Structure formats: structure tokens, C-alpha cells
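Could you join me in thinking about how sequence relates to backbone shape in a protein? To get us started, please write out a protein record for me. Would you write everything just below, so we can both look at the same thing?
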Amino acid sequence: MNDTAHLYLVMAMRNPGFQASAAQEHMVFLDSLIERGLLEMTGPFTDGAGGAYLLRAADLETATQIAHGDPLHVSGSSTLTVHEWRVRRFP
């Protein structure tokens, strides 16, 4: 990982008006993040309440800007929150 990049946890919690079409567009959005080298990991919550993904970005403002381009956010299907995350990794 680039030394100037930090990790940001994006929590995407479904809203009552969740649109299935936004979920399909969200997957395309995640693929574009992978292609750009910005996505560390992603996945849904098993209870169906939403999901999360881990972004690489230079700062919180950039991470928030990226996340706010997510079709889940743009469509109002989910509420996204972005948190800088100092991840501890173990062998």
C-alpha cells in the first residue's frame, strides 16, 4: 500500500426505501474502485442491514468524496458514514 494512503471504513446501512437497482450499480462502483486500486475489502452484513468496505485514500475528505459517489448514497438507498481506521494486522 502507498505510504501516503490511509484506510477508511465506509459503513453503508440500508434505508427503508432501499432500491435493488442501486445495489447492482453499487457492485459496478466497487469494481471501478478495485480497478483504481482503492478498495481493500468489502462485504455485506449477514443480517441484511447493509455492509461495509475499506477504502484507500489520501485523507478523509477524499475518502468521503469517493464514498458519496456510491450509487447506494446517490440514490438514497443507504446512509453511508466514513471513518478513518487505523487497522492492526496480525500474522
Observations:
- The first strand starts at residue 6 and ends at 14.
- Strands lie at 6-14, 39-44, 50-57, 78-84.
